[in-house]
Amino acid sequence: MSVLSSRSRYAGNPIEEEDRVADRLAMQGKKIIKLNRGDPAVYFRTPEYIINAYKQALEAGNTHYVDHLGIPELREAVVDRYRRVYGLKTNAEKVVVTQGVSEALLMLNFAVINEGENAIIFKPYFPIYPPYLEIFGGKPIFERYDEANEWNVDTDGLERSLKRYGKSKRIKYLLVTNPNNPTGTVLSKSILEEIVGLANEHKLLLISDEVYDELVFGHAKFTSMCQLAKGMPYMILNGASKNFDATGFRVGFAMMPGEDKTSNMIMNKFRDFAQMRLCANSPGQYAMAAAMNNVSEHKKAIKSMLAEMEIRVKFATKLINESRYMHAVEPKGAFYIFPKVSFEKLRIRSDRKFVDELLREEDVQVTRGSGFGGDGHIRIVSLAPKEILETAIDRINRFCSRHAK
Amino acid sequence: MSVLSSRSRYAGNPIEEEDRVADRLAMQGKKIIKLNRGDPAVYFRTPEYIINAYKQALEAGNTHYVDHLGIPELREAVVDRYRRVYGLKTNAEKVVVTQGVSEALLMLNFAVINEGENAIIFKPYFPIYPPYLEIFGGKPIFERYDEANEWNVDTDGLERSLKRYGKSKRIKYLLVTNPNNPTGTVLSKSILEEIVGLANEHKLLLISDEVYDELVFGHAKFTSMCQLAKGMPYMILNGASKNFDATGFRVGFAMMPGEDKTSNMIMNKFRDFAQMRLCANSPGQYAMAAAMNNVSEHKKAIKSMLAEMEIRVKFATKLINESRYMHAVEPKGAFYIFPKVSFEKLRIRSDRKFVDELLREEDVQVTRGSGFGGDGHIRIVSLAPKEILETAIDRINRFCSRHAK
Q1: pLDDT, tens only, A335-394
Q2: A4 dihedral zone (left: phi>0; alpha: psi -120 to 50; beta)
Q3: A245: which chain B residues are within 8 Å (Cβ-Cβ)?
Q4: Distance between CA B185 and CA B178 in Å, rounded?
Q5: Which chain B residues touch A269 with a CB distance below 8 Å?
Q6: Interface of B with A in 61-120 (CB under 8 A)
Q7: Contact A208, A178 (CB under 8 A)
Q8: Is residue B265 less than 8 Å (CB to CB) from chain A?
Q9: Distance between CA B102 and CA A113 in Å, rounded?
């Protein structure tokens, strides 16, 4: 009898796989530039009004367990936000507060995936989508975001695949990330409409991870799945982490506004699972409710943070595209850059080796593209101040020159 | 193709299954006495020094993601606590911070359970032990705590069962709860030694849920598994919720001090899983580290809380044992009472119907014993002030009289 489960081989997250190496280097006195974790709260203080609400919750004694579904104040705040921002009519029954989007992914796959069943995930993907599916016996079917077309969904390819699969695959859901991590793409309304149409035609549950929905640059226009997917089962994932700059709170939510039987069945299973872990961080939920309800303070906070994010992302993208060794599609949102590395010019063969040696030789930690299903790329989190980003990219260039053919 | 996974039927928690009924009654203006959730922070304010540390973490900007394994300060604080209190020599590598003990149970079963494999759980059990096993395809083997012997482990029964099973069952772990929820039993050193001996003999991983380890009354003596299980793989589960009166923080930990290969393999899988959900509540971890490190403040806080808990539990136990309809073994720790209901005197046949009708007729919410694998009992959380406990027990008696044969 083996000690471990066979499923346990699927767990992990490439974003953090070099953390222990980085720790050891730091202990040797090296100063590591960490561009691996997408964490705005490292560089932008969580807004004061949110911190104050959190402190008030602590002072008011809101440190006990709360409703496993989430506090009513937060679930109502979610409903209000979606009505205000996207014109969605729904109610708090359709919202379950989760321990971050990651727990929502856990609950989703727990609820719907049987051994051997499938889900459609687009490459490059947020690295925890496949393992949360695979630990429950699911098998990802990879479709693609097309780098040649600004990392948009290849909807023609998707349509062909769905026709080809027919009933040969048991596809439980189709998951899109908008705005995208790691590419920064913001999907257009027309592409989303095509996806909704295909999901409808093939009776696929649509999952939309919209955790960066307010982090959109310039003239790019974000469309929420809730504006297009009417009268069909779909789920939106979102949370405090990115828009509200509060990653460490571990407060997210899953919302499934449909009144159909499928939506109700799945939400019921989210509720059952939620009972098992009692509740999410309770004082953090009060802070998150205040964060969403105080519209004017939030607007102020996100305006200045987003302006600075855009400056940093554009600055780093420009430097990357001036490099002889990298090329990146300019992101329209979020704070990631996903450059293709010109491995044909290098003696290093894989992105895994690239990031590992870059860390050891240049004290810069980025994430390998293969961890996102995007071999030959690296992901650079572009939240640090310009001078740090510049130093990091200089070092990446120096590293590439040293290892050039 | 079914909408739901077959595993999803296992999720749930009987402690909370009546919450929506209670909500509806409350909305009708009823004042429900809720004795279902074991939540000290509802009745005892989380100590001021912990709240202050939490607020300081927020003010210091510790709102970002932290290490997926937990902040070093907290993992060191855990190591220090176990050295100080139990003389254990271990190190922070052996500790993974979890989102409560519930997440540690999730990680455990994720890591070791394959379809059809078994774990030994004693009845009556904390209700989420079986579902976290079952959602990963595991099958519980139930052994028993013996009510006639003050709910102690029936070690003779356990020994007979283990011999009988031989290799016919694939038993991955044996899980004990000490002090116990729902019975309040504190296991003696000699019984624990027998369990350790049997686990050693049959090569079973020992899991000890010790989340109430400081909540022990009078002359009862608690022994931690780490004092007895030397040179073998074992895991201890604990956290902020009960001893530190901070249930809503969602900060717990799993510790596996063994240097053996099995311990290392399992801890590695905890680490891999931990990466996937990024981290536990970060400011809460700083608060928890301070809570554990400030020994003198903690001693003061727990002394007064525990004294009051003991008064309330003894008071309620006495009232219960004066009832014509209930009998309870007096708890030696924690804050639960698990009386046997004299169903032979009642027209109500099941504990499920009993708690449901009690809630609707008398506005008192308790949990059915069958949810703990203890049919014919109910669990009463005895944290409320005496007058509320008295009212509740009066109402239970009135309810029983009304439904007497």
Answers
A1: 999 999 999 999 999 999 999 999 999 999 999 999 999 999 999 999 999 999 999 999
A2: beta
A3: 63
A4: 7
A5: 4, 8, 11
A6: 61-68, 99-100, 102-103, 106, 110-114, 117
A7: yes
A8: yes
A9: 22
Residue A67, SS3? coil
With b for 16 or more beta-carbon neighbours within 10 A and e for fewer, the B351-364 pattern comes to bbebbbebbeebbb
ipTM value greater than 0.95:
yes
Dihedral sign computed on CA atoms, order B38, B173, A11, A173 = negative
B15 and A262 within 8 Å at the Cβ level: the answer is no
CA distance A10 to chain B (A): 9
A55 interfaces chain B, CB cutoff of 8 Å: yes
Looking at this protein, which amino acid is placed at residue B115?
E
Asked if B287 contacts B50 with a C-beta cutoff of 8 angstroms, the reply is yes
In total, the C-beta contacts within 8 angstroms joining chain A to chain B are 223
Reported as a single tens digit per residue, the pLDDT across B270-322 is 999 999 999 999 999 999 999 999 999 999 999 999 999 999 999 999 999 99
CB atoms within 10 A of CB A259: 11
Q: Which among B128, B249, B265 has CB closest to A281?
A: B249
**How far apart are alpha carbons A367 and A377 in whole angstroms?**
9
Q: How far is A272 from chain B (nearest CA, A)?
A: 4
